[in-house]
Amino acid sequence: DGSPRSPYAAIYTSLGCPYACSFCCINAPFGGPGYRRRSVDAVLDEIAWLYHTYNVSTFKIVDEMFVLNPKHYVPICEGLAKLPFADDLNIWAYARVDTIKPDTLALLRRAGIRWLALGIESASAHVRDGAKKTLDDSDIQRTVAAIQNAGINVLGNFIFGLPDDTHETMVATLDLAESLDLDFANFYSA
User: What is the pTM of this model?
Assistant: First the structure.
C-alpha cells in the first residue's frame, strides 16, 4: 500500500521441507526431505526483541513452508496475536495451497500476517503432478479467495518450463495467474 517497510527483518521459524517437489533444491543441503522447528518462545522472543530494539515491524518468515504444521504455526500465531504491538506487524510467509486451513486464516491475520506466498507453479494438473506438486484446480481458486477474504494478500509463484510443459500449458499458466486476481505474482523459468 506504499507504507514504509523499513526497518525490515527476515527470520526463520523452521528449516527444510518435508515435501519432495521435483523442481526444488531446498532439501539438497539436508540430503532429502526434512523439517526442523524452532521453539515458539524463541520465535516470539526474537520478534519482540527486533521490534523493541530496532523498531522492526515488517518481517519475512523465510521458512520454505511456515503454514505447514498447525502444531508449529498456530501457537506462534496465537502468541503474536497477543502481543501489544500485533496491529503494527506486517508479516510475509510461505504456504502451499494444500496446507491452508480456512479455520486458521483469521488467526493468521490477527497475528500480523498480511501476505501469504503460494507455490501454485502451473495451471496444468499434469505438469504439477509430474513435478510432484499435486493440487486440484478448484482448490487453487478457492484457497486464494479464502485467503483474500480473510484480509491477507496473496503472492502467487509460477514456474514455466517444468517437465511436460508445452506452449499451451504455459499460456494456460499465465491465464490462470491473471484470472486469480492475485495481489502480486512471481514468474520463474525452470
Answer: 0.86
